[in-house]
Amino acid sequence: MERYLFLAQRLTAMVLGPLVLIHLGLILYAVEGGLTASKILSRTRGSVGWGAFYGLFVIMAAIHGPIGLRNVLNEWTSLPKTATLIITLGLGLLLLILGARSVVAVVGLGG
Amino acid sequence: MSLDESISHQSLLKVKVWRGKEDGQWMNYEVPARENQTVLDVVSEIQRKLEPGLAYRYACRVGVCGSCAMTVNGKPRWTCRTHVKKVSGTGELTIEPLRNLPRIKDLVCDLAPFIDTWQKAGAPFSGIQTRHQEPAKVDPGSKARKAADAGLQCINCAVCYSACDVVSWDKDYIGPAGLNRAWTLINDARHGKRAETFNKAFGEGGCGSCHSQGNCTRHCPIGLSPSESITGLKKSALFGLPKV
Amino acid sequence: MHPLRNHKSYVAAFGHRVSGIALILFLPFHFWLLGSALGGADELDSLLKYSELPLIKLAEWGLVMFLGLHLLFGIRILFLEFTDWPSFKSKEADKRAGHLVNLVVPATIFVLIIGFIFLIQAW
After folding, report:
1. Do domains B3-109 and B112-239 have the same CATH topology?
2. Please, are residues A111 and A46 in contact by the beta-carbon 8 Å criterion?
3. Of A17, B4, B55, C25, which shows the fewest CB atoms inside 10 Å?
4. Residues of B near C (CB-CB distance < 8 A)?
5. What pLDDT is attached to residue B9?
6. Which chain C residues have a beta carbon less than 8 Å from that of A10?
């Protein structure tokens, strides 16, 4: 299992790298003049491109983050390893659900 | 202060030594500072002239056996090949047992957990051939053989194990020496249990726990790079066993 | 500082970890906030107005910094692990390649620049 968790974390990291760069660029662009919902939504609503981009982002982050947190908990807390695995899976699932919900909210379904 | 006093003051080395077990105390000693003097010389001089009950471990005194490693001014070192001048700019030394291992007495720690990690990494060599067969032909220039050769000269001193932060955090972590050993075996065509060793090196506490801080390589007294062996293992995560 | 942690790789690994923890704790709130747009632009706006509070603004700025740092420290790990990076060959090579490989200085500068632009635009 460790081998596949390790691989999953490194492979998602490789995908996340460019995604984060684009996301950072977008943040710098988007905050200019303040954030409003209409500005955000006019850019994203009905956009297949942004939908795919952030959909992929959510999936990758939901895999990458919890595996990292598992390492932190294993090394910096005395929680048993089954507990840290359950936390990892739970957090991954939570991020996946919340993330999917936010993509649907921002992009909208069916345009 | 008279001239005599100032000279004798300058030529003394102030040494703090850990005495006892986990709940011990620091003791202060002063030994003459000499032109050529290793940390092990200092410990021996304290034991012979000042503190006959001081427990410490050494054997060969020439950097072969790996017995005399201790923590010197906060860093793990082989004391027999560590000159005092190299580590003590201030004329002061603090000497304690290696980190990450149970203490037995004074400067001696229990190496059993460290040796166990070798087993955990699938370390015993397992031959395929019998004595009646021709010796295996191994190309010394092959990529696998070079990778194995690079990690072979380990003297089991436990300096890397003591230097590693991940070992101090996670008692299940195999650590640099065990994983380095696993990598040499995985690249050895004559090892019969390559797949088994590979799986152990990727198991719980295996190479995936390494954070690439490089403390093992930075402190290895004979200049090996467990870091590189561990990244070798990590690189083979995707495609499995390297070709030998 | 602990004698075993007084080097750039430690700073990079520690920074990578701390920024990662901050990001994973922040992410559920981030998703939850964006998800409120399900109720329409007004609902999202009613939450976005809190982002004008100085303390929230500072926290957001910190998170953008952390994202940049985590990315760069992560690139360091990937380079160390999946290329034949010279610094891992020996401690001598580590000394030679140290500045380049640890990315601490360039990472900090890069992120400070991003953070500065972000601050100017958002405030």
Report:
1. no
2. yes
3. B4
4. 73-75, 99, 163, 165, 211-215, 217-220, 223, 225, 227-228, 231, 234-235
5. 52
6. 78, 81-82
Q: Which chains touch A (3 or more CB pairs under 8 A)?
A: B, C
Residue B75 with chain C: CB contacts under 8 Å: 3-4
The ipTM (two decimal places) reads: 0.89
Residue A111: the pLDDT is: 43
- Rounded to whole angstroms, the Cα distance separating C94 from C80 reads 11
Domain locations in chain B?
A: 3-109, 112-239
| Long-range interactions of A52-58: CB distance < 8 A, separation 24+ | A53/A19, A53/A22, A54/A102, A54/A103, A54/A106, A54/A107, A55/A100, A55/A103, A56/A15, A56/A19, A57/A16, A57/A19, A57/A23, A57/A99, A58/A95, A58/A96, A58/A99, A58/A100, A58/A102, A58/A103, A58/C31
Is A5 in Cβ contact with B237 (below 8 Å)? no
Where do we find the tokens 């992929």?
A56
Tell me what pLDDT residue B6 has: 47
Interchain pair B170, A74: CB under 8 A = yes
For A35, the closest of C36, C42, C48 (CB atoms) is C48
User: Cα(first)–Cα(last) distance of chain B, in Å?
Assistant: 70
Indicate the fold that domain A2-107 takes in CATH.
Answer: 3 helical TM bundles of succinate and fumarate reductases (1.20.1300)
Q: Does C9 touch chain B (CB under 8 A)?
A: yes
Q: For residue B2, what are its two tokens?
A: 């008279």
Instruction: Give the other-Cβ count within 10 Å of C116's Cβ.
Output: 11
Q: Is C7 on the interface with B (CB under 8 A)?
A: yes
Into which CATH architecture does domain B112-239 fall? Orthogonal Bundle (1.10)
Q: How confident is the model at residue C123 (pLDDT cuts 50, 70, 90)?
A: low
Gap between the Cα atoms of A40 and A26, Å rounded: 11
- C neighbour chains, 3+ CB pairs within 8 Å: A, B
Residue C103 to chain A, least CA–CA distance (Å)? 15
